What does this fold into?
Amino acid sequence: MTAPGNPHGSPARPWSSSDFRAAARSIAATGVRIYDHGWSPATSSNYSMRLNDRFCAVTVSGRDKGLLTEADIMVVGMDGTPASEGKPSAETGLHTQLYRRLPGAAAVLHTHSPASTVLTMHYPQEATLVLEGYELLKAFTGITTHESRLEIPVFDNTQDIDALAAEVDAAMDAGRITHAYLIRGHGVYTWADSMAACYRQLEALEFLFSVTVQRRMLGTRT
Ligand SMILES: [Zn+2]
It folds into this structure.
């Protein structure tokens, strides 16, 4: 296939094929771990890694995340346009918004977990989830003590991904987003400067969401 934007028809692509293979392997392996936790049921969720300033690798739409392989990963431009075979995840625009906005973001993970769904649906007036005082907050890049407060904004769900990406952008302008955001009745997005750091944050988030549900069931208003 001729690389997009290459008028000379040479086989060179505007991304490194070894970078793509490494990203695809990392996304597939991480995706299977996420599925095994029960955070990505029924082909939901999407994952990505930056390849360079102009392209990222992202999961193909509708793939079973429990069976994810390198063949389920494709390349898109930072405007969301497919740059290799396949149809990208419907929410690709939320990944590319983060990469455009945050030059240090190397990986983005998005899940549809039970705890994030329960928390955001059961408290429809809650526009921010506050996580405070937990030792596991140290799993987040830049946080070094449990005496920290992580505020996670909750956006209402929509199928209009461009509109949601604009909302996220505006919330970043306002300084409301640091490590993650939630979408009501839907799931969470988090990002970091490596896939390992991103997965660590996701695991901490899912743990803390689950803990918050359990504490509220016990009657603690967290
Ligand atoms: Zn989703």
